[in-house]
Write a structure and sequence with these properties.
The chain is mainly α. It has 6 helices and no strands. The chain has one domain. This is Jg5206 protein. InterPro entries: EcKL, Kinase-like_dom_sf.
């Protein structure tokens, strides 16, 4: 019909109601190394907010009414533990050695083991060291 209806965006990758900051932290902690984060973390945080602002403007929303930068920055700081959790939980999958991935349809959970890529230990160490430096761990 010609009536307006409410639309809600849902991320089916990990569906839950939460801050958009979690999407950014998911990307950062599953797809970047310590050197990249050290050089670009602040730029990524600012870029995400800038692009979110543009997207909301496209739909005639003012970011200051919906998600002011101060709230966004506080959410980012308050959600850093999510980045650690995602990294620790998903890194075994991300860094499974090439040509080896468990067959979840055939293996029982007790029988599943992983062969890690050589980068796994370094990546996890970098992440834990960052969180120690920030005083989160």
């Amino acid at each position: 019909n010609d009536e307006d209806s409410e639309v809600i965006l849902i991320d089916f990758q990990a569906p839950f109601y939460g801050s958009p900051v979690t999407d950014l932290l998911y990307f950062i902690y599953t797809g970047t190394d310590g050197k990249f984060r050290k050089a670009h973390m602040n730029n990524l945080r600012d870029l995400y907010h800038t692009e979110l602002t543009k997207m909301l403007e496209y739909f005639d929303f003012d970011i200051n009414d919906v998600y002011p930068k101060k709230v966004y920055e506080k959410d980012f700081e308050d959600s850093l533990d999510f980045g650690l959790m995602v990294a620790l939980y998903l890194s075994p999958f991300v860094f499974t050695a090439e040509n080896y991935f468990p067959d979840f349809s055939k293996d029982t959970i007790e029988d599943i083991s992983y062969t890690m890529d050589d980068r796994y230990e370094e990546r996890i160490t970098e992440i834990v060291e960052e969180y120690l430096q920030w005083g989160i761990l």
